[in-house]
Amino acid sequence: MSVRPILIWPDARLSQRCEPVGPEVLDELIADMFDTMYGAQGRGLAAPQIGVMKRLFVMDCTWKEGARSPMVMINPTIMAAERLPVPAEEGCLSIPGVLLSVERPKAVTVQWTAAEGDIHMADFDGFEARCIQHEFDHLNGTVTFDHLSGAERAKAEAEFLETRQ
Ligand code: ZN
Known about the structure:
Elements: H1 27-39, E1 44-46, E2 56-59, E3 71-81, E4 85-90, E5 100-105, E6 107-113, E7 119-125, H2 126-139, H3 150-163
Antiparallel strand pairs: 1-2, 2-3, 3-6, 4-5, 6-7
The structure holds zinc ion.
């Protein structure tokens, strides 16, 4: 197990759509993704954030409150979402130091394959639903900046780039 480097926006790989995961052994990758996520003080990490262009992510929405609840979602699909989006601030390990308000459905129904290979379907809401949608975005090459538009987006991107100089 090891911590892998996290790609920082605007790395081109963060804007690419990932390929479905096939029948392959992911144990080492998943262990590394958790090490990398916990090491970076994050609550979610998608494979493309470490340069692996495959459709899976890890998350743990409760570990910072003292109780670990690690979860792996492979080839996830959002089957249904509540119609009315709600705004909330989101950070991203690939855009360190930036919190952006993003509107998302408050609740989603997700189908995914677990690390053991079995298929699950469940409803999520609140912070978990937001985290899943944020990580799911990464699998499609979407980051929080992509939820902004026009001048607001240009300003947020320019401010972030300034902090990286
Ligand atoms: Zn992110």
